[in-house]
Structure formats: structure tokens, C-alpha cells
Automatic annotation (TrEMBL):
It comes from the Bacteria. NCBIfam families: PHB_DH (TIGR01963), PRK12429.1 (NF009093), PRK13394.1 (NF009931). PANTHER family: 3-OXOACYL-(ACYL-CARRIER-PROTEIN) REDUCTASE, 3-OXOACYL-[ACYL-CARRIER-PROTEIN] REDUCTASE FABG. Belongs to the short-chain dehydrogenases/reductases (SDR) family. Gene3D superfamilies: NAD(P)-binding Rossmann-like Domain. SUPFAM superfamilies: NAD(P)-binding Rossmann-fold domains. It holds the Pfam family adh_short. This is 3-hydroxybutyrate dehydrogenase. InterPro entries: 3-OHbutyrate_DH, NAD(P)-bd_dom_sf, Sc_DH/Rdtase_CS, SDR, SDR_fam.
Length: 263
């Protein structure tokens, strides 16, 4: 039983076949929202949707490459056709590519920007048009990162993209306020998902450390308790913000990181 109430609301979560996006989709569904599970990986999205449905929730697998305008528009329209509206967008799909800046190829840089920033722009534009035309307003929540606020060696493309989301969210908050649309950035610390599990051996190799040293000396060094942030912790903050009425919190970023980077 959720302590949040999203009965009658429709959400779309991108990158929801795995990790943080999947967790957000499950929490939103438990709060009563119908949820579009959007991902490049349609089979994975359909599995998550089926598992939410098996628990009594309403969910739909949606094929979507967030970097492709036609795919984004089609996926959001499909969700609106099936569930009747879109009230909550969680713009979450993301990738990580780790290199020293002199070794990044332009294609790698572009790939990171296109999924994080083009994806956030395209999904926002498609969703907000529906939020405005329905007159219902809505909430748009971006998955940022502690790296929306802090730099990190080897992650120039990711850090630049995650900082960019703050500017996009703040602008959406200003533009959307008169029409009932709020925008937020949720900024997790390190969470054990496939995205992070892939980084650990890569960073160990580049930095000449063991994997345990990367975890203790790089990833969790500045937390208050040496703990990873969990998917459920991030998903609960997203669900809280999706439920929170009015403009009091709009435009803000919320760091969910066990004390790593206190604003
Ligand atoms: P993940 O790899 O578990 O999940 C990412 C999902 O995004 C996958 O299902 C993947 O198929 C999907 N995806 C990738 N490219 C896509 C595209 N073009 N279109 C649609 N879907 C696409 O990763 P995660 O750790 O859950 O990351 C989710 C978000 O959280 C990302 O934006 C990431 O930057 C952010 N984040 C993660 C952490 C962490 O420690 N895991 C920390 C801070 C922020």
C-alpha cells in the first residue's frame, strides 16, 4: 500500500526497462498511476509492464528511442491513446561513457548528449503539449545526478549533460507555472544498476585501482555512511514529487545521495 496517491494519473517513464527507471515505474504504479514503460529495449519494457500488471497495476510497454523525435512523439501519443492523458513524465533514460577528455570521440560525446539532453528536450516537448492542451497540467521529473552539481574525472560528456538538465528544468518550471506544469531534477548518488556495474571495472582499469578501491575510494568516499543509494530511495523521491501539488518546489533539484554533496 503506497503512502502516495496518484489514482487517475498517467505517467510515462523513459529508460524504464532497467534500474532507476524501472523502480520509478513500479513506485508510480503502486501509487495508482497508469504507467507507460518506455525504453529502447521493448522486450524489457514489456516484461516490466507485465510484472506491474501481475501485481494489479496498469502499465504498458512502449518502444522508444528518446533521441529520435518521431519515436518519442509516437510513443507518447500511444500512451495518451491507451490511458487517456499524460500527467507525469520521468525523463530518465541515460548512458555513461567514461574516458579522459582527450580520448573521447566526437561520436561518443554526441551519443551522450543525444540520449540525455535531446531525449529530455524531445520527451518534454511532446508531453508538455499534451499537459497544456488537456488543461490538467502535470509534473516533469528529470533524472539528473550528483554530477548535475559536481565535476568528475573521466565523465566530461555526462557531467556536461547532467548540468544541462538543471537549466532545462528551471526553464520548464518558469514557462509551465501558469499552466500547471512543474519541473524537478532528482540527483542520485551512485546506485547499483547495470550502468554503474559496467563503470566499476572500466574505472578500475583507467585509474589503476582494484574494483573494491573504486567503490570505496571513488564512488562512496564522500557519503556519510559508505552506502550506495538504492533504487527505492530514488523512486520514492520521484513519486513524492509527482504527487506534490502546487509550485512551492518547482524548478529545484533534489540530491539523493547519502550525504554526498550537500547543497
Ligand atoms: P540502466 O542502464 O539500468 O537503465 C537505463 C535504461 O535506459 C536502460 O533500460 C536502457 O535500455 C535505456 N536507454 C538507453 N538509451 C536509451 C534510449 N536512447 N532511448 C530509450 N531508452 C534508452 O541505468 P540507470 O543507472 O538506471 O540510469 C538511469 C538514469 O539514472 C540515467 O539517466 C543515469 O544517468 C541516471 N543516474 C544513474 C546513477 C547510478 O548510479 N546508477 C546515478 C545518477 C544518475
Amino acid at each position: 500500500m503506497s503512502r502516495y496517491n496518484l489514482e487517475g494519473k498517467v505517467a510515462l517513464v523513459t529508460g524504464a526497462a532497467s534500474g532507476i527507471g524501472e523502480g520509478c515505474a513500479r513506485w508510480l504504479a503502486q501509487a495508482g498511476a497508469a504507467v507507460g514503460i518506455a525504453d529502447l529495449n521493448l522486450a524489457g519494457a514489456q516484461q516490466v509492464a507485465a510484472s506491474i500488471a501481475a501485481e494489479g497495476g496498469r502499465a504498458l510497454g512502449v518502444a522508444m528511442d528518446v533521441a529520435n523525435e518521431d519515436a518519442v512523439n509516437a510513443g507518447i501519443q500511444h500512451t495518451v491513446d491507451v490511458f487517456g492523458s499524460i500527467d507525469i513524465l520521468v525523463s530518465n533514460a541515460g548512458i555513461q561513457i567514461v574516458h579522459p577528455i582527450e580520448e573521447f570521440t566526437f561520436n561518443e560525446w554526441r551519443r551522450v548528449q543525444s540520449i540525455h539532453l535531446d531525449g529530455a528536450f524531445l520527451t518534454t516537448q511532446a508531453a508538455i503539449r499534451h499537459m497544456y492542451s488537456s488543461g490538467r497540467g502535470g509534473a516533469i521529473i528529470y533524472t539528473g545526478s550528483v554530477h548535475s552539481h559536481l565535476a568528475s574525472k573521466l565523465k566530461s560528456a555526462y557531467v556536461a549533460a547532467k548540468h544541462g538538465l538543471l537549466g532545462l528544468a528551471r526553464t520548464v518550471a518558469k514557462e509551465g507555472a501558469q499552466r500547471g506544469v512543474r519541473a524537478y531534477v532528482v540527483c542520485p548518488g551512485f546506485v547499483r544498476t547495470p550502468l554503474v556495474d559496467k563503470q566499476i571495472p572500466e574505472q578500475a582499469k583507467t585509474l589503476g585501482l582494484s574494483e573494491e578501491e573504486v567503490i570505496r575510494q571513488v564512488m562512496l568516499k564522500d557519503t556519510v555512511d559508505g552506502q550506495f543509494t538504492t533504487i527505492d530511495e530514488v523512486a520514492e523521491v520521484v513519486t513524492f514529487l509527482a504527487s506534490f501539488p502546487g509550485n512551492a518546489l518547482t524548478g529545484q533539484s533534489f540530491v539523493v545521495s547519502h550525504g554526498w554533496f550537500m547543497q
